[in-house]
Amino acid sequence: MSDWPDRRLIDLFGIRHPILQAPMAGASGVALAVAVSRAGGLGALPCALLSPEEAQAQVEAFRQAAGGPLNLNFFCHTPPTPDLAAEAAWMAALSPYYAELGLDPEAPRPAATRAPFDDAFCALVETTRPEVVSFHFGLPTAGLLARVRASGARVISSATTVEEAVWLAERGCDAVIAMGFEAGGHRASFLTDDMSAQPGTFALVPQIVDAVDLPVIAAGGVADGRGVAAALALGAAGVQVGTAYLRSPESLVPDFHRQALAAARDDGTAVTNLFTGRPARGISNRLMAEIGPMSAAATPFPTAAGALAPLRSARPGPDFSNMWAGQGAALARESGAEDVTLALARDGLARLARLSGRPRPA
Ligand SMILES: Cc1cc2nc3c(=O)[nH]c(=O)nc-3n(C[C@H](O)[C@H](O)[C@H](O)COP(=O)(O)O)c2cc1C
Q: How many CA atoms lie within 13 A of 229 on its CB side?
């Protein structure tokens, strides 16, 4: 069961299977991380929607329930300076929905909540000492990164192009996540805004493998043993899996999101910037259909979310809510996260054995 042909991530992180649970802010928490860890994968806690105190409580809960290593995940965007004209334009684009729901566009709105990695989060890393720290949207400042490394954590981040992978390798990452265009959630891209040119996993993984002398983790569309075997055949040392866990009881997504996942098809997702201002892949819904999934009016990440909050409160459900998911959404099964992880490992190994002509593992 642990007969993996490439042991680089197993040794680097101290895990049994080279399967990383994708940190999924808002969609995953302690229960999912513990379940994946128990199965021998790398459990992750996303911190982008948490305060440092909430994150610390989650790390402690994970440590009490699981013996395995932990990946603590942070966004590292630069918050934009407020721009009243841009905010007015975004409100104007949403005004028909405010009118439909009888909402006052002048009423105070909540501020955007996605927080970047900063001194307080870095202090949390130094105190709680996760084995792995992962970043989305590049890396933090050199000073913060040096402190993370000094804590003893392995550092990983996502690349959506070869150029981004080389940039991460040059700054000392221990492994690189190759995030193909199929992937659910925010595009990790930080050196490009051009979504029309983002490569898919099948093209991206071998090109990053060729370009950097680091273990590469394939992400995007890996949802069962076939995806695991394909990723390793392309030269990846392991996989990061998000969407395949979203229907597990441990996932935190609301019922309407679960129903959309259960009904998902191969062509049911799109990359949209409407919900936060940054391109992200999610299940297509009414807002995306009516405004178009990408809008020049959406204010920069993460502020676009603020203007949507009253719509989401007034009408909870799929119309105005992001339902992040990757192109493999229809492959997600309604199984516990421990079973999903064990199946990824078992079926992935069986497929690899079949491809290499070796006898199948028991
Ligand atoms: C619901 C959801 C939320 C996500 N949130 C984060 C996050 O907070 N941090 C992060 O590094 N990646 C996040 N991602 C991206 C994942 O790390 C990963 O790249 C992606 O799930 C892989 O593709 P897949 O969904 O096809 O498995 C998210 C993905 C999803 C589906």
A: 15
- Ligand 1 in contact with 185 (CB < 6 A)? yes
Three-state SS for 226-284 is: HHHHHHHHCCCCEEEECHHHCCCCCCCCCHHHHHHHHCCCCCCEEEECCCCCCCEEEEC
Q: Which atom of ligand 1 is nearest to the CA of 253?
A: 1
Q: At what angle do helices 304-314 and 84-100 cross, to 10 degrees?
A: 10
Q: How large is the average pLDDT for residues 74-101?
A: 95
From start to end of 301-341, where are the E strands?
none
Question: Is the CB of 276 inside a 6 Å radius of any atom of ligand 1?
Answer: no
Atom of ligand 1 nearest to the CA of 180: 23
Q: Of 22-31, 106-115, 241-250, which gets the smallest average pLDDT?
A: 106-115
Cβ atoms 181, 207 nearer than 8 A: no
**Distance (Å, rounded) from C-alpha 129 to C-alpha 116?**
19
Please, are residues 331 and 244 in contact by the beta-carbon 8 Å criterion? Answer: yes
Q: Is the CB of 215 under 6 A from ligand 1?
A: no
If you search the block for the tokens 């493999």, which residue do you land on? 328
- What is the spatial distance between Cα 203 and Cα 116, in angstroms, rounded to a whole number? 30
- For the chain, residues classed under CATH 3.20.20.70 are 1-77+114-252+333-362
Rounded average pLDDT over 125-129: 98
pLDDT at site 362: 57
Q: What's the pLDDT tens digit per position in 1-35?
A: 468 999 999 999 999 999 999 999 999 999 999 99
User: Is-above-0.90 flag for pTM?
Assistant: yes
CA 137 to CA 158: how far, in whole Å?
7
Beta strands in 86-137 (DSSP E): 132-136
Instruction: Summarize the confidence of residues 327-345 as an average pLDDT.
Output: 98
10 Å Cβ neighbour count for 151? 16
Task: Return mean pLDDT, the chain.
Answer: 96
Nearest alpha carbon to residue 85 among 297, 348, 236, 244: 297
Instruction: Note the CATH number of domain 1-77+114-252+333-362.
Output: 3.20.20.70
Amino acid (one-letter) located at 359:
P
Alpha helix (H) residue ranges in 199-303: 201-211, 225-233, 255-262, 286-291
